[in-house]
Design brief:
By secondary structure, the chain is mainly alpha-helical. It has 20 helices and two strands. Helices cover about 70% and strands about 0% of the residues. Strand 1 (about 170) and strand 2 (about 180) form a beta hairpin. The model is unreliable at about 1-10, about 10-25, about 35-40 and about 420-425 (pLDDT under 50).
């Protein structure tokens, strides 16, 4: 009996010792985890994507009818938060030489001046985002872009259909009713789909099949029925043959390589065409009038802008009256709404007049360089995307809005495609 009690006391003692060691072990583990938490290192890519998400969400909401119910100033302040994050990454985390930092600082300063002259937030933020994308995987940027865009578009569409936010409906004969689904204008919805298609093609470039193209066509028809924006509808259809040629060129087909080698000229050519066509537009010319009607009056509006405003080196403020938002819908429904409407839809003409000659030249050269680099590396996908987007730039105003066009961030980001053999090895 005594032996049994002794054994029992011994077992209790052993359990107490083991429990004490376990407690000490847990304390050490807790201290180590706490230490690891405090020593957690944030890399440049994480800072970039924090800035990207903040800016993307706040800028996207500003282009929706939800912004009318929220504080617009608060949304703009949220957009500005991304700027110090990007500057911290550029100046303290990325490895730039002193000469490179000097050039970057000059470009950021020019962006600030142009922003103050034209009152366009995108001009302030675009240089830090382009430079801040250094060493960030470009495929990850496009993936984040797709996820954020799809989630926000679906959220706004559901909110508008439930009546939480206005679903602007534009009625103008002979066109059918056009729906914005929570965005400030119908063409904004169509443009989002157009760039989502380009992003999808980039992510699946080496795997694109006829099923992908069929889905693109079905989606294009659906968005055409909702928004009735024929220019975006046509531009989205053009994606299919251009991507087919780009895929063949990527795989080494000679004829496709020859065709794709000229795509770097797309931006200079399309920008020259729309500026000269708008400047020399004459409503009495039957051919020009037909083109103007086909493009929903873009040539006439461009001619009016080029006639009424001089070219400025660093940009200028231009007062515009659009059909976007609830106020714009009232203007569109007025009998004399057409006469009061004035908006520079062409991205090229906006750059030329609103953002200034210097920004115009820099952006044209920049996008041409990205296309040329894609051709020299024999990947062709970005050259194809810029070719298709350049057609959209002629008639849409969103060339440097990251919520529409994320391909501007490709200069310093780590590319997804390199050479044919490397892609085959992968």
């Amino acid at each position: 009996m005594w032996e049994q009690q002794s054994r029992g006391l011994g077992d209790v003692y052993k359990r107490q010792v083991i429990f004490c060691y376990a407690e000490k072990g847990n304390e050490k583990l807790l201290k180590r985890n706490t230490k690891d938490t405090y020593n957690f290192k944030i890399n440049g890519s994480q800072i970039f994507f924090i800035a990207f998400v903040i800016f993307f969400v706040s800028s996207f909401i500003q282009d929706t009818t939800l912004a009318e119910a929220l504080n617009g100033r608060f949304l703009r302040l949220c957009s500005y938060i991304s700027l110090p994050l990007l500057l911290f990454k550029i100046y303290f985390m990325d490895r730039w030489s002193k000469k490179e930092l000097f050039v970057i600082s000059i470009l950021i300063l020019l962006g600030m001046i142009t922003w103050r002259m034209a009152h366009e937030l995108q001009l302030l933020i675009i240089v830090p985002f382009v430079v801040g994308a250094k060493n960030v995987n470009f495929k990850d940027i496009i993936t984040w872009y797709v996820y954020l865009n799809v989630i926000l578009l679906l959220t706004m569409a559901i909110f508008s259909l439930l009546g939480i936010i206005p679903n602007l409906i534009y009625r103008a004969a002979p066109r059918p009713p056009r729906y914005s689904l929570g965005l400030i204008y119908t063409s904004s919805l169509a443009t989002h789909y157009f760039y989502l298609v380009l992003a999808y093609c980039y992510l699946r470039f080496s795997k694109l099949r006829w099923t992908d193209y069929l889905l693109i066509i079905i989606g294009d028809v659906i968005f055409m029925m909702i928004t009735n924006t024929k220019l975006d509808f046509i531009a989205t259809l053009i994606v299919i043959p251009v991507m087919f040629i780009a895929q063949r060129a990527f795989r080494g087909h000679k004829l496709s390589e020859i065709l794709a080698s000229f795509w770097w000229m797309a931006v200079p050519i399309t920008s020259s065409i729309i500026i000269f066509a708008s400047y020399f537009y004459d409503g009495s010319n039957h051919i020009m009038k037909a083109v103007d009607d086909l493009t929903s009056g873009r040539l006439g509006l461009g001619h009016r802008a080029l006639t009424n405003y001089d070219i400025n080196i660093l940009g200028q403020t231009i007062v515009e009256h659009t059909y976007g938002g609830s106020k714009g819908l009232k203007l569109a429904n007025q009998l004399n709404g057409v006469s009061h409407y004035f908006f520079i839809d062409s991205s090229y003409i906006r750059m030329f007049l609103l953002w200034g000659l210097l920004a115009f030249i820099l952006i044209i050269v920049y996008m041409t360089y990205i296309a040329m680099r894609s051709i020299f590396r024999r990947t062709f996908v970005l050259a194809a995307i810029i070719l298709i987007a350049s057609l959209n730039f002629m008639f849409e105003p969103d060339i440097i809005k990251i919520i529409y066009d994320p391909f501007l961030l490709a200069l310093f980001a780590t590319p997804c495609f390199y050479k044919i053999q490397e892609e085959k090895d992968k």
